[in-house]
Amino acid sequence: MGGVPSIPTDRTRTVQVIGAGYSRTGTVSMALALERLLGEPVMHGGTQLFGREDAYVKLWCDAFANRDNKPVLMKILREATAGFVAVTDVPTNAFIAELVELYPDAKVVLVTRDPDRWFSSMQTLLKDGYGSMSVLKALLWPCPGWRWAPTWFRYLQIVESTRLGPAMSPDSILIHNEWVHNHVPKDRLLTMDLKEGWEPLAKFLDKPVPNEPFPHANDGEAMQKFAKGVFRTAMLIWLGILGGVGLFAWVGMAVWRRSLLSSV
Known about the structure:
five-stranded parallel beta sheet, Rossmann fold, Sulfotransfer_4, membrane, P-loop_NTPase
């Protein structure tokens, strides 16, 4: 996760860089690097989906729901990305082709990673971060923003199973990378490994190389910590709801008993 979500103050800004790397390829690190190079708000999808207001998260669910209605989809994507100068991670990397068309001057950065290490990282994410969708849906129902997680995740699974195949494997990231190469013009695409540091990215964006280490964020640890915080907060909300219902029932019962006694 990328910490506190950026909320653009100038919605006239448009996307200059589309992060096409799949989740767990260093999307947080790339978002931090792009923020440093471009100096404006960058959308890291995971942070936005779990940190923004209810209406914004629902907007992305609407984008998935309208994926076969291109005019509506493009309008939603423009609204959802307005004010950001770059985007990384889900949900935007599920709409790469549409974003490439929507922002014809934007450049695309594809981050690669060893397939086996990537797959191991994805399995940890899915096991620790989501769990049972039915349980998650019930647990997050009273939580604004978070309540939409089961919905957009279900949509994402449908989209990705069509594009990458029904079962995720180490080959999935290779299929994704090939898909990106087939759908993005070569002169707009940079393929890199984060181990290469600032130079290829800065050169591609015509920016000076920063005199500081390339950002390195541990997505896995951050996700596990965040997931625990989400579940803890959701449980507290449910305890408050159930406690309120219990108190209301107790007061109602007391009033009912008093009315019975007074009628005797």
